[in-house]
Design a protein that fits this description.
A hairpin with a 5-residue loop joins strand 5 and strand 6. This protein has a domain of 102 residues: P-loop containing nucleotide triphosphate hydrolases (Rossmann fold), CATH 3.40.50.300. Helices cover 48% and strands 15% of the residues. The chain has a 5-stranded parallel beta sheet with strand order 2-3-1-4-8, with helices on both faces. The chain has 217 residues and is α/β, with parallel strands linked by helices. 32% of the residues are buried. The chain binds BIS(adenosine)-5'-pentaphosphate and magnesium ion (MG).
Length: 217
């Protein structure tokens, strides 16, 4: 199964990608996670990306396209992949099409998770992520059993640099301007499956599985 998860910041792409990864045993490919790890390690890629990410702006297309081109050729993508946070612009979507044609892995579905912007701000300001294993929590909606400690691995939880309200507003504007046009792009290709991202995480997961099994779009 070759999938894209589309949706604004905080829609639950990462949360659902992790659940789909366990269910289908295919890797989650998050450009945000790859870039954050490069920033943490201080690599040339990380140094280039940091200024954009801190401001809540998108990293240049050629940088992320290069990352995806390499990553999709790795052996673990043999049986499928879940793209989380890529593509985010029309040039990225076009480049992805070329890459997938070359490696003969056509897309099966593009899942668009819809959530209103006030809910997105609430989710992002309360998000906490595990430093060790990347598991995601929310201080109110999905709190860890022990404050600031990961339920899964016992690692420390942290708040993402770009989860400050002002940066969140910039990320939402970038989404509207650059990423939202991809909804139409994939609708035209008859690949888009839109779902309401409000409700419990398991409920949303079940909705996604249901749309995969539905015959028509
Ligand atoms: P990225 O890391 O991709 O961030 P994003 O798209 O802004 O999305 P988020 O990760 O913030 O949200 P999410 O949808 O994954 O939600 P989550 O599951 O965490 O990108 C970061 C930056 O990297 C970009 O700004 C850009 O600079 C750069 N970048 C990355 N990719 C790029 C690209 N392709 N091109 C250019 N630049 C790129 O959930 C959020 C919170 O809500 C969590 O606390 C979670 O527990 C909670 N939650 C989840 N589901 C529910 C639910 N159903 N109910 C209540 N709470 C919920
Ligand atoms: Mg994410």
């Amino acid at each position: 199964m070759n999938l894209i998860l589309l949706g604004p910041p905080g829609a639950g792409k990462g949360t659902q990608a992790q659940m789909l990864m366990e269910h289908y045993r295919i890797p989650q490919i998050s450009t945000g996670d790859i870039l954050r790890s490069a920033v943490k390690q201080g690599t040339p890629l990380g140094k280039q990306a940091k200024a954009f990410m801190d401001k809540g702006e998108l990293v240049p297309d050629e940088v992320v396209i290069g990352i995806i081109d390499q990553r999709l050729r790795e052996a673990d993508c043999k049986n499928g992949f879940i793209l989380d946070g890529f593509p985010r612009t029309t040039p990225q979507a076009e480049a992805l099409e070329t890459i997938l044609a070359k490696i003969e892995k056509p897309l099966d579905h593009v899942v668009n998770i819809e959530v209103d912007s006030e809910e997105l701000v609430r989710r992002l300001t309360g998000r906490r992520t595990c430093k060790n294993c990347g598991a995601m929590f929310h201080v109110a909606f999905h709190p860890p059993v022990k404050e600031d400690i990961c339920d899964r691995c016992g690692g420390p939880l942290y708040q993402r640099e770009d989860d400050r309200e002002e940066t969140i507003r910039t990320r939402l504007k970038e989404y509207e301007k650059q990423t939202a046009p991809l909804i139409r792009y994939y609708q035209d290709k008859k690949l888009l499956r839109s779902i309401q991202g409000i409700g419990g995480q398991n409920q949303i997961f079940e909705q996604i599985i249901r749309v995969f099994n539905a015959k028509s779009v």
